Structures are given as C-alpha cells and as structure tokens.
Sequence to fold (271 residues):
Amino acid sequence: MKDMFSAGELAKLQNISKQTLLYYDKLGLFKPSYIDPENGYRYYSADQLDYLDTILIMKKIGFSLNDIKMHMKHFTTENSMVFLRNQLSVIDREIQELSLIKNRLEHRCEQMDHMDPVKGSKPKIASSGPICLLCHEVDRPYGMKEISIATKKCYAQALGQNLPVFFQCGVCVPLAQINAGCCTKAKTAFLTTEYVPDISNIKRLPAGRTVSIYHFGNYSNIGQSYGKLLQFCRQNRLTITSDSYEFCINDYITSRYEEEFITKILFYIDD
Fold:
C-alpha cells in the first residue's frame, strides 16, 4: 500500500518486534492506521512514525507504558515539561540509590580482595570505628534454620523500608555460650547498615578496641577458630567485654561452596 508500512516493515525500521507493535495496539497506546479486513494485516501511515518515536523515547527515559498512554492523550509543550521534570526527579533519586548500592558492593569486593587466608587465620588486635547493625532476634532453639529466618527478616525490612544496608549479614553469639563450647547458637541476626533515626532495631556498636580472627570454611567448625581466639586472649591477658559479633565476608551470596566461606569473629576488649 502506498505511503503505508506493514507491521513487519515498521518493526524492522524501528528495531523492535512485531509482538511489541501488537502489544501496543492491545494497550490502546499505538494502533495501526488501517487493518485489511480480508487478511487482518496491520498497516501504519508515515505520519505515525514520529508518534512511535515519541513512545519509544519516553519508554527509554523510564516512563511506564500506562503513563505514556495517559500523557499522550492530550500532551502539549506545557504538560510535557511538567511530565519530563517529574521524571528528572525520579532519575535523580535512582542515581543516588544506585550510587549507594555501588559503594556498598565495592566495599564488599574490597573486603574479599584483601582477604589473606594465612594472615586472617591469626588473631589480631585493632581499633574499630562505630558499627551500625540492623538486628532481628533469633527464635529458639537458635539453630541454623532460625538464624536464616531472622536474617531474611533483616533483608525484608531493609528492602521494604529502603534502608542503607551493606549486603553483609552476621550474627551475635553470647559469650557465655561460647565459653560453654556452644558457638553456633546465635541470639541475634543482623545486616551492617548506617544509622537511621526512628528505626528502633538498629544497634550502634561503639568505637573501641577489638580482637578478631577469620574463620575459613564450614560454619559448623567455627568452634576451632573460637578456640584460637580465646586462647590468644588468655595468653595476652585480654579481657573480653562483649558478646561475639560474626561478620560474613564470603557467604552464600558469593559462593555455593561452604569451603569458600569466610567469617570474621570479633570481640570488644578492655582498653
């Protein structure tokens, strides 16, 4: 047909699929100019090309198809400026969020990059800055199932409330249980985060002197690393002043093999 494009021709011209044109038609967003009554073939006029360009550009900018449909019913320069400026605000928020996510992923990658299994297996005394933890209590009997459920609650809250977490989970294990030889019964699961006002279950660990060790491999064997750390504290007459905080450096997020897991065990000690 003269000055008309078939669906296949228009799809090829715009580098989209025929199914996309069909979907736009079903939505009432972009309908063919003419449908052949004999074979049902769809045809589009040349003056529809700019309209389709506008739809595809707006979709690329980030608008939903429903928003585009509503806007283009009566769009003018004036309301288009409002529409576009609103989207600029949305993009700015997305850029800020992506920047935060990027920084947190870089932080986690740096932790793994600088992990030396030989050095990490030896106890180390250091000064720690403040640490914020988004916490959920672990239910009885404080086993791995209950720890996993509490951790999932942390992630669900963080995602639901858009909290600035670092994608690093961990647990707090009471010192009394560790001294009794029960090192895998955590009382609290947490995600490392930043301080957020009005979030009651964010705990802020103070800056202070700490002693730590890295445990490599299966979590069920973590008692061996606790043994090394406690022995180091006794030999150096260090007084432990906190429960244990375990930070996952390499876990199920980054490996399916437990032998590759890395856990940092940390206690606060007297100055």
Observations:
- The mean pLDDT is 92.
- The two ends are 87 Å apart (CA to CA).
- The first strand starts at residue 4 and ends at 6.
- The longest helix spans residues 77-113.
